[in-house]
Amino acid sequence: MAMTLKRKNPVDLIFSSITALASVTVILFIIGIIYVLISESSLSIEKFGIVKFLFSTEWNPVKEDFGALTNIYGTVLTTVLSLLFAIPVAIGIAIFVTEIAPNFLKGPIGVAIELLAAIPSIIYGMWGLFTLSPIMSNYIEPLLKKATANIPLVSILFQGTPMGIDILTASVILSIMIIPFTASISRDSFNLTPAVVKESAYAIGATQWEVVKNVILPYSKLGVFGGVVLSLGRALGETMAVAFVLGNNHRISTSLLDAAATITVTLANEFAEADNDVYLSSLFYLALVLFVMSFITLAIAKFFLLKAERKYSR
Amino acid sequence: MTSVQRRKIEGTIALTLSTLAAFMGLFWLVFILGDVLVHGMKSLNLSLFISDPAPPGAAGGGLRNAFVGQLLITICATLVGVPMGVLGGTFLAEYARGRKIARMISILADIMVSVPSIVIGTFIYAVLVKPLGHFNGWAGSIALSIIMIPVVLRTTEDMLSLVPWTLREAAFALGAPYYKVITQVVYRGAATGILTGILLSIARVAGETAPLLFTSFNNSFFSLNMNQPISSLTVTIFQYAMGPYDSWHEQAWAAAFVITIFILIITMLGRLMIRWRYR
User: Fold this and answer.
1) Domain A80-269+293-313 has CATH 1.20.1250.10
2) Entry pTM
């Protein structure tokens, strides 16, 4: 009934068209971004191709020879490291907030986590440069270097002089940034476990940890996994938190104490200064690679989160 | 050791570790916020707000240009982003409710929320900076509004969906056309939620730096002209913190302090409003 009335009213037709137009902009932006990035990078795509660009370690503005591998390496390495640091802490926080914390603590810690998520990334970056980086280079990195000096293979990770401007510091800052994000999604997934299932486990004598391990975690694994992948997508594209402490060094190094470059850091540092067409076009190409990487990651995350949602709502 | 003892010990260890993790999260918050507060308070003074930057390296001066520029860019972004987001969300939750297109746009908007903001910066550079031949404030605002739209759109959609369908049916029964039902009944029911979404989206874009780096760029002089490069707090923080002068570092801390406090207050306000409305 409402539908037929709606059709008859001209104002309604106009209003519905305007709202439709506003929501379609989201699709237009995505198509627009892909189209513009491809057309702006066409010069570089023609010159270097796809495979050669992705696997070349060259980044030489003077010779106008560009490849993305050093940037992709830095992006993937910092992201993976930061997730390794962040996931255990984030899941620990989620377990604490949903299961362990007394009620008077649940609220404040929840708020604290949300505030941590609201702090802009540039504050993390600046704090990293002025506060964390000296701590890393004076205390933590020499300690790690000493501790691993006699362990073959591991010691390769900590070669070189600890400067504090390196992959390790950048990864630590990135992990602090994504902890609240991962934690709040994990918490929401944990909260969806039906109380009846948990109580049944307690009734047959399970300890609190066994309930977490054998009931809550298996029950919410889809949601938690989706949350982790979402954090991965976020970390891939994070710029300012790492721009201060990564050093923008286009080299592939096995040591975590070396400066490196991510796609985002290269863009932030070089985009406004690119002085010739191939250079600028290659930077657009990098942006395109980043967009595709993060879009696919985020789409996978969304897929798992939707699957989790459907499972719980049944 | 009996198996019960072993299980209890295992449980205690695991739960202690989770508690430690939670306090580690708190520790970082206190550490970062404390650091910004201490350094920021030290460098905060009146001339920061009322005078323009001194020549590089010279003491004194302020960041009046950056405060005003940031305000201009954010306000313009809000003026574009909020109406688009609210209207778009209205389409998804009302006219297209339950249709495939609504579901698709909703999922794409969720993805857009997390798309790297620096990529949006490069997109706007190609569309609004390169053709004009110079950096300009409008480009910065539009870049921020593109980040804003999906955020506002998704919260609006969620909040409108929370309004009971029977409420709309009651209004339909009185003979009201759908647009009147939406503007006079549904929006009122969801007003607090939508406002919260708007506040959180402002908090989100106010701290964005990456999309401004090569759109609005920076300007060391006071300017209200959105057709020209315009200064913003976040880009100034980046430039000053990476720069060689101590006076720059101090001002960067002060600017970081102001922007952090602003964002935290808005975020808290949003949370409080939603708690107050939907408790």
Assistant:
1) no
2) 0.93
